[in-house]
Amino acid sequence: MVSILANVAVQGILTGLVYGLMALGLSVIFGVVRVVNFAHGEFTVIAMYAAFVLFTALKLDPIIAMLPIAIVFFGIGYLLQMVLINPFVGRAEHEQFILLVGLAIVIVNALLMIFGPDAHPTNLSYAFDSYLVGSLIFDKVRVYAAIAALGVASALFLFFRFTQTGTAIRACADNLVGAAVVGLNINRLYALTFGLGLACVGAAGALMVTIADVAPSLAPAYTLLAFTIVIIGGLGSMAGALIGGILIGVSEALAGFLVAPSMKSMFSFGLLIAVLILRPQGLMGRT
Amino acid sequence: MRSLWADLPARGRVLLGLLLGALLSAPLVADRYLISVLILVFYFAYLGEAWNIMMGFAGQLSLGHALYVGLGAYVTAALWLYAGIGPWLGVFLAVMIAALFGLAIGWLGWRFGIEGVYFALLTIAFAEFTRIAFDHLDAFGGSGGLFLPVNTAQATEWWNLRGGPLLFYYLALALAACAVLLVARLGRSGLGYQWLAVREDPQAASALGINVFRARMTAMLISSSMTAVGGVFYAFYYRSLFPAQVFDIGRSIELILAPVIGGLGTVFGPVVGAFILTPLGETLIAVMDRVGVDAPGAKAIFYGLSLMTIIYVQPNGVWPWLARALGFKEQA
Amino acid sequence: MSTTYRAVLTRRRLVTGAAASTTLLCAPATIKAQTQALKIAVLLPRSGYLAPAGQSCDRGARVAPKVLADFGHKVELVHIDFESNVDIARTQAERVINDGVHCIVGAFDSAASIAIAQVCEPRQVPFVVNIGAAPQLTEQGYKFLVRNFPTGVMLVGNGLKLIKDLLAATHASPKSAVFLHANDTFGTAQRQGMDRMFPATEMPFQLLESIAYDPKAQDLSVEVTKIRSLQPDLVLVVTRAADAIKLVRDMVRQRFEPMGIVSPGSPGLYDEEFYQALGPLADFHIYNIPWANPKSQMTQALEAAFKPANPSYRFAVECFNVGFTFEALLIAADGFKRAGTTNGPELMAAIRQTNLTEHVMIGDAIRFDTKGQNVSIPSAVMQNRNRTPAIVLPASVATMAPVFPMPGWQGRT
User: Which of A121, A132, A211 is nearest residue C245 as measured by Cβ atoms?
Assistant: First the structure.
């Protein structure tokens, strides 16, 4: 029984890392630009479709496709911020919300029209393989995706910690007025941050396609999941996003196993409510 | 009441009178399709006014209002199904339960200082939690749904909300009208001004001696109660309830579109928003049909683009702009 | 003389000609009445979360007019997408009736079907449900609704009985089973049917547990872990489209090989993506559902029309949705033929008297009981063979013999 529980927990951790990467993008954007991206799941699904198309057309493994997709998404994020989002920065949340809800509707239905409503699995050659370690079974795809997610997150962390631009962005997040006083180009940094956030989403989407079959209907669920993870982990904290992802992955898996799989999400929302009440800045957030 | 009427500019009185007259007599000339669309307009206008109290006045973004709709719907439907208690009585229990939930959420949120996006997510979490819970409550039909029977013998029992579209039309119209009156009344009351203060600057309001927590809780109480009544209407109009549809976050989002597009914090905003959005959707479908575009999803794309355009061009909503265009002074 | 004669003849000719042309002018009107088309609105969720099924049904609706014409029925269709939204289903039902449709077919989603029924009932427009398993649809007392689809209870009952037949035919004896179902309207209806009927059917195996999964789940690894911890011989599933892929995938990864995966009646195990994603791993799974009768002339005509119109979809895979949607339209058209009028109550009365021996799905004639339910829609035991659904039982319509238990995951071609 213990080994089965351990198995469930480990699978939860692996999956949670990929979810965490998806949430990371959201955290970065909100932490700095303070825009609540309610179209987050939709962008993730676009990235998934991109990876799917690249795989189907060029036989490119999604883990490799992650890089070009992330770069393209960086560009998209940069442009999006400069053109569409910038006027809405600093505006009331409900206005941002409506803008992004409208965008989300457009994206989901455009994807529906282009790809159709059916789910498209990405048929990797190793999709059915698993590692057997003692009595624990690990899905190969989940292991690869989790490692890749950790890699991307680490790269991002190093960027923010050790580069000048990264430090500048963190300065914006900590003290916007101060950053402006010091002479940082806020608009450019915002665009950069949005680009980075969306690049994360792009990478996460590419990885996601190895563990889920892409369909337009996934988008709203991903938006909600990303927000849940980010709140639990702490808005603006990168480690928090990953930890939040792991926490959600494990708790859902264990709750699903021990109680009832159909109530999995209830536990995530219960956890969200508990965190909001007891520690609203999130587990790793700064007060 | 009289002061409300008296305070309207002459032009406003004429327009309002004309509008009411048109709506009251619409069933004489309108076909069933138009009536069904208007019922939806009134329904969303009503819910919009209810939500407006929370957001437009008290400044709290609730993205889980479908929770109260669902509670209102399920409680009255269950009372009718299992105990034969009609909706005119059942609504009281429904309102009480919804208000309790609302007060609990409000208490949890504001006692612990949860604001803005965080509060919005708290409301989402509660709505989703309840949705999944109802999926598992067999007493309410679970995910299989709760159905109200169609018994032709009871077909005209208006006290049990069994009736043709006219019954629901006038009921929805009455609800929307009452909501507008209530919001207008509240807006001018002491409470209304307290809300405005709390919305604009809670700290300053608190410094002035306003009990911020109490003001917000009152807003939540009124808003959730009103929304629950909308749920009662929904249950008896559609006669079938599924948790995945009633508590869905899509529904919560849907009901805030009208007030935001129409004009947050204004009395007529939600009404204008509802009159724009619902017919917009229907018109898009009809236009696509005529033009021969047969691509599922195309209408939704146009709808989404419309939302984005409107909020871009008129971020404060359409009604303030419309009011200025019609020559009214700024309204609260 | 010749002039007078000519004049008289001319006048007579004129009169005769006038009479003849009047008859000619009127005759087309009479002919038109006989070949008047029945205008049917097909309300389906072609966008939104039910889009995959809705679009599949719509493919059936689009090829129906031609096939129906070949069998002597003239229909004119209006295709409506209600976007998986109950509000839109209701307003669009009102709108199409305004536009003059005589009958409505739909709606796949039970909530939308009820909303449409609310419109059709007072306006006295017949509503033929093509697919919808919630038992309450025909229990609520709607006079203007008929359903040519089994209820969840019927599906499970037939499905369980056929499992018994399957085990008898293959001489297999699993000792235990676990039932996995989606926690949505359809899955819950099946679960309720299962809870009620499993004890009564006296199966040779024990039902260890019933597990409900969240249909919005990203993967089923936790569910599969839970199932394999119980070590059942047999896994009974009620999945939606796309979930079955996750189920098999996780079973393979977790190296769990039951004797077989059997569905007492649900979609998922025969979707095109299922075959494409799993390849040889898609084979040998079993599902007991109504199916198109390959020996029926009408089915063959439907298939012949479907192929050129939908080159990227296999009829063998789509025929469930396509068949039922076609049959709903057929019922409406046949009722119109017998009623001879588009008048609502008369058309409905004729539809309730339906007795169609020639149709698409397997089974006896299509007939409705007093509640408007067709109670004699049998299921067949279907098995995936070579990535194609094949009828394996009952023998009278089978194209292959069943294989059970299924071969292991490894080494399949």
Answer: A121
Q: Partners of C262 in the beta sheet?
A: C236, C286
Q: Is residue A263 part of a domain?
A: no
Kindly list the structural domains of chain C, giving each domain's residue range(s) and its CATH number in brackets, ordered by start. 38-150+294-352 (3.40.50.2300), 153-289+380-393 (3.40.50.2300)
Radius of gyration of chain B (CA): 20
CB–CB contact C221 A253 (8 Å): yes
**Cα A25 to Cα A18: distance, rounded to the nearest angstrom:** 12
Q: Flag whether B263 is in a domain.
A: no
* Range of the structural domain that residue A88 is part of: 11-115+137-218
Longest dimension (CA), chain C: 113
Q: Are strands C127-129 and C103-106 parallel, antiparallel or unpaired?
A: parallel
Closest CB to B245: pick one of C79, C111, C122. Answer: C111
Give the total number of structural domains in chain B.
1
Q: State both tokens at B8.
A: 């309207």
The yes-or-no verdict on residue C104 having pLDDT over 60 is yes
Give the nearest partner residue to B108 out of A110, A227, A277, using CB atoms. A277
Q: Tell whether A266 is within 8 A of chain B (Cβ).
A: yes
| Domain total of chain A | 1
Q: Residue B162's closest chain C neighbor by CA?
A: C118
Asked whether residue A284 is domain-assigned, the answer is: no
pLDDT at C31 over 50: no
- Single out the residue of B66, B54, B60, B61 nearest to residue B129, CA to CA: B66
Candidates A88, A103, A109, partner chain B, best to mutate (most B CBs within 10 A)? A109
- E strands, chain B, in order: 146-147, 240-241
Q: Which helix (H) or strand (E) holds C213?
A: strand C206-213
Q: In chain A, which residues touch C (CB < 8 A)?
A: 1, 4, 7-8, 11-12, 15, 109, 112, 116-121, 123, 127-130, 132, 137, 139-140, 211-213, 215-218, 221, 252-253, 256-257, 260-265
Contact check, Cβ <8 Å, A211/C272: no
Q: How far is CA B186 from CA A25, B178, B332, C247, in A?
A: 42, 12, 11, 55
Is B307's CB within 8 Å of A101's CB? Answer: yes
Does a structural domain hold residue A19?
yes
Q: Within a 10 A sphere around the Cβ of C139, how many other Cβ atoms?
A: 14
B330 in reach of chain C (CB within 8 A)? no
Contact call for B144 and C88, based on CB within 8 A: no
Asked if the structure places residue B303 within a domain, the reply is no
DSSP state of C285: -
Residue found by looking up tokens 């339910």 in the block:
C373
**Alpha helices by DSSP H, B30-53:** 32-52
Smallest Cα–Cα separation from B172: which of B225, B224, B232? B232
CA–CA gap between residue A177 and residue A181 (Å, rounded):
6
Range C6-10 contact pairs with CB under 8 angstroms and sequence separation of 24 or more: none
pLDDT bucket at C29, cuts 50 / 70 / 90: very low
Evaluate the omega torsion of the peptide bond into residue C107 and state whether it is cis, within 30 degrees of 0: yes
Domain membership of residue A81 (yes or no) is yes
| Mean pLDDT, each 10-residue run in order, chain B (332 residues) | 71 85 88 92 96 85 94 95 89 96 91 82 92 91 84 64 83 94 88 84 86 89 96 93 91 90 89 93 88 83 90 87 78 46
Q: Tell me, yes or no, whether B209 lies in a domain.
A: yes
CA nearest neighbour of C285 among C157, C162, C406, C413: C406
User: Where do the H-state alpha helices sit in chain A?
Assistant: 2-33, 40-58, 62-80, 93-115, 140-162, 164-174, 176-182, 186-211, 219-233, 238-258, 264-278
Q: Residue B208's domain spans which residues? A: 30-247
CA A106 to chain centre: 20
Please check whether residue B175 lies inside any domain of the structure. yes
With CB atoms and an 8 Å threshold, state whether B301 touches A273. Answer: no
